[in-house]
């Protein structure tokens, strides 16, 4: 029973969902009724019971659900992408992701939030594939009002092909923070008062995508994709979104999250000291590229690179 319960709980927050946490109780009940026989195989994502939360943005034949895990495949014919039906402004966005096993050279797998448009706000987790046995690199980037160029790259402290790990964005009017499991890996704070754009007015969609990017992904483009190893399949589970649904017809409705909203709490508006320690740990031990220290690219470091954290 304990195992069944656990499985039900996992399923209830299971991807396919992009579940609003607020509707979990209902989902949980449905899942409990469904029990643990999650054997149904959907040939396309659209056939899954969760299709009301997602649409396939690109190439339905490369997306499927097996045992409540969403799989996105890159084949010689195409990459693929799914996106949330809703747009959101501020909140908590999480995915459990297991990367392409074995050879994934030339394959880019991304989980990201984007408003789209020229002046887009965007928060990216991009996983750079590699040859079999060679490590994945995680690249992150943050765009505000169309300005990005804030790439950071880290090695991970685990093999992201072996298991599901959780990748999270927490976003409120003061801060965008990104996490790998429970470790904060970066933060972008609001310096609008100092004249820097901050993402706080555009709704974003939530996307997962995977496609060939041989020209730059692996060792700077030296190792192209090897289609004899296709399909390249990444697996998604445990999506979670706790946010405000953004409606273009009332664009300010989400702008001021109620004080009681958990992701707007003080510990997510400013960086607590234990989080500073995490950021430092990542920077010291795992960071292999940081735009802040790329003086060839930015002779004067961008504002947020030298501003003290608050
Ligand atoms: C591919 O990866 C899986 C999981 O890590 C492993 O069990 C399997 O042996 C690998 N296959 C090859 C051909 O390397
Ligand atoms: C791929 O593996 C090589 C060799 O271990 C490593 O230098 C590189 O950083 C890895 N990642 C990418 C994205 O090239």
Question: How would you describe the overall organization of this protein?
Answer:
With 310 residues, the protein is mainly beta. The chain is 14% helix and 35% strand. The chain is built from five helices and 16 strands. Helix 1 crosses helix 2. The protein is globular. It binds 2-acetamido-2-deoxy-beta-D-glucopyranose (NAG) (2 copies).
Features:
310 residues, mainly beta, Jelly Rolls, eight-stranded antiparallel β-sheet, 14% helix, disordered N terminus, binds 2-acetamido-2-deoxy-beta-D-glucopyranose
Q: Main β-sheet: number of strands, strand sense, barrel status?
A: 8 strands, antiparallel
| The level-1 CATH class | Mainly Beta
Low-confidence stretches: 1-44
Given the helix and strand composition, which structural class is it?
mainly beta
Mean pLDDT, all residues:
86
Bound heterogens, unique:
2-acetamido-2-deoxy-beta-D-glucopyranose
Shape: globular
Distance between the termini: 46 Å
What is the beta-strand fraction?
Answer: 25-35%
The count of helical stretches stands at: 5
Q: Indicate how many domains the architecture comprises.
A: 1
Radius of gyration: 19 Å
Taken in chain order, the helices and strands follow as HHEEEEEEEEEEEEEEEHHEH
- Count of DSSP strands: 16
User: Would you identify the CATH architecture?
Assistant: Sandwich
Write down the CATH topology. Answer: Jelly Rolls
The helix content, as a percent range, equals: 10-25%
Protein name: Xyloglucan endotransglucosylase/hydrolase
Function: Catalyzes xyloglucan endohydrolysis (XEH) and/or endotransglycosylation (XET). Cleaves and religates xyloglucan polymers, an essential constituent of the primary cell wall, and thereby participates in cell wall construction of growing tissues.
EC number: 2.4.1.207
Enzyme class: transferase
